[in-house]
Design brief:
Elements lengths: L12 H12 L3 E5 L3 H13 L4 E5 L7 H9 L4 E2 L15 H7 L5 H10 L4 E3 L4 E4 L4 H14 L3 E3 L15 E4 L17 E7 L1 E5 L2 H4 L5 E8 L6 E8 L3 E3 L1 H9 L1 H6 L3 E7 L5 H14 L15 H12 L12 H12 L1 E10 L5 E6 L17 E3 L13 H19 L2
Parallel strand pairs: 1-2, 1-7, 2-6, 7-16
Antiparallel strand pairs: 3-5, 4-5, 8-15, 9-12, 9-14, 10-11, 10-13, 11-12, 13-14
The protein binds flavin-adenine dinucleotide (FAD).
């Protein structure tokens, strides 16, 4: 005999109404911003909820513009994170939140996601991940094809300036990218952290330094004296000052301090990533082994000869032509100091290959840390650079966009 389970008593009518309302309230999603984060929310949401009506509103005439120009047209879409032991090393802002969200969607998931969607990826020696085609259009086509297949509506030339414009939608996802001015985010009615640029190179007025243009010091630490702000890595001398991974990282960590000082601040360089005792020992050994050789002909720590000539001339003047045994104690101290604590004055900033991100945006305090839904407005979500999250170069900014976008899609799906 067939057993039919019957409820002991019928649920109250009000309960049924709430259920019906919840279903009805999760049918239409508006995504504001047709960039990386906006498309990643849209495609994932449609894959999780094929019946969801999803519309992307994009203010300009073309979507995915930054993806197109990213990574020099190759799109550095994530990183292997093999050299990252703590997310704070690559995300000056937002690392705590991302640590939590990476449990659900991290760089390995990104890798899988793109490969499952037909985009083959390759990891370079420096751990940056690119499409194997070395062409950002592969990523763009992946999103556009998925959007077409899943009937995601894309409305270009549609700038959203008020939440009330989207009152017909059950969910609004804001993925408008980095805002250069705080008032650009007023319409979201959220707490906002002031925006300043991050990821730039330093202008340094020092003609002797600039004449070394193109020289790379492989292992340096750069720091702002009197603060804990420091970054390590290769440093590139340019015709306007300094660039390279160490400088870009410092620009990111010191973004707010530099902005408040109008990009005019002292900065010190340890050219060899070694402490004073290690440098003294290295110089001492050279003096013993190469006492009769000219200072310029034996370079400590394998520094490039152009840089060594600059540094030795800077602290020894004409005596840089002398032999190592001619160095007195004071001169050894000066050399130690210039190698470990060389001082410069930053006098402005310049863009790095047009790449920049903004530090600041919608405050992380105003969103739920698990769903990225506004704490003050039900059904309003944020993903991508619009949030007060930003990373250093190397694919970390796109990874933050994919992770936060996936989180939002999942949160909307979980409401069903
Ligand atoms: C030149 C350059 C190169 C880069 N290269 C890399 C890289 O290789 N790897 C990496 O990880 N990161 C890179 N970045 C950073 C990365 O591009 C961004 O972090 C990422 O694009 C952020 O994605 P998003 O979707 O949040 O914002 P965006 O890509 O900026 O998209 C936001 C979209 O919203 C639209 N919009 C804004 N306001 C409104 C509105 N009110 N209504 C409707 N639409 C609106 C904008 O027009 C835009 O299309 C690069 C950045 C630049 C500038």
């Amino acid at each position: 005999m067939e057993m039919v389970a019957t409820p002991k008593s019928s649920p109250p009518f009000s309960y049924l109404l709430t259920q019906v309302d919840t279903v009805k309230m999760n049918k239409r999603t508006a995504i504001v911003g047709g960039g990386a984060a906006g498309f990643f929310v849209a495609v994932n949401l449609k894959e999780m909820m094929p019946d969801m009506e999803v519309t992307i509103f994009e203010s300009s005439s073309r979507v995915l513009k930054k993806v197109e120009i990213s990574g020099g047209g190759r799109c550095n879409c994530t990183n292997s994170f093999a050299q990252v032991t703590d997310l704070s090393q690559v995300y000056p802002r937002g690392h705590r939140l991302l640590k939590r969200l990476f449990k659900t969607f991290n760089h390995r998931d990104t890798y899988k996601w793109f490969e499952q969607h037909g985009v083959k990826l390759v990891t370079q020696e420096d751990e940056c991940v690119f499409p194997a085609s070395q062409d950002s259009h592969t990523i763009i086509n992946c999103f556009l094809n998925a959007a077409q297949k899943q009937r995601i509506e894309i409305r270009t030339n549609q700038r959203i300036g008020k939440l009330s414009e989207l009152s017909d939608y059950d969910n609004i996802v804001v993925t408008t990218g980095g805002a250069t001015q705080i008032n650009q985010l007023q319409w979201t009615e959220q707490e906002v952290v002031e925006s300043v640029p991050s990821l730039f190179t330093f202008n340094i007025e020092d003609s002797a330094l600039q004449s070394l243009m193109g020289t790379v010091a492989e292992e340096t630490t750069v720091f702002i004296p009197g603060t804990k702000l420091r970054a390590s890595g290769p440093l590139l001398i340019t015709h306007w000052g300094m660039s390279g991974p160490a400088i870009l990282r410092l620009s990111s960590y010191a973004a707010r301090l530099l902005a408040s000082n109008h990009y005019s601040m002292p900065m010190n360089v340890n050219w060899v990533c070694a402490n004073e005792a290690e440098v003294r020992q290295e110089l001492g050994e050279i003096i013993i082994r190469h006492s009769q050789k000219q200072i310029g002909s034996v370079r400590p720590f394998s520094i490039s000869s152009r840089l060594w000539n600059y540094l030795s001339a800077k602290c020894l003047g004409d005596r840089a032509d002398y032999t190592w045994r001619d160095l007195n104690q004071k001169e050894q101290n000066r050399l130690t100091n210039v190698l470990t604590n060389d001082s410069f004055q930053i006098s402005g900033r310049s863009p790095f290959k047009e790449e920049f991100v903004t530090c600041g945006g919608v405050s992380l305090k105003s969103v739920d840390a698990s769903t990225l839904e506004s704490k003050t407005r039900h059904g309003l979500y944020f993903a991508g650079e619009v949030l007060d999250i930003d990373g250093v170069t190397g694919g970390f900014n796109f990874q933050a966009a994919w992770t936060t976008a996936y989180t939002v899609a999942r949160a909307i799906y979980n409401k069903r």
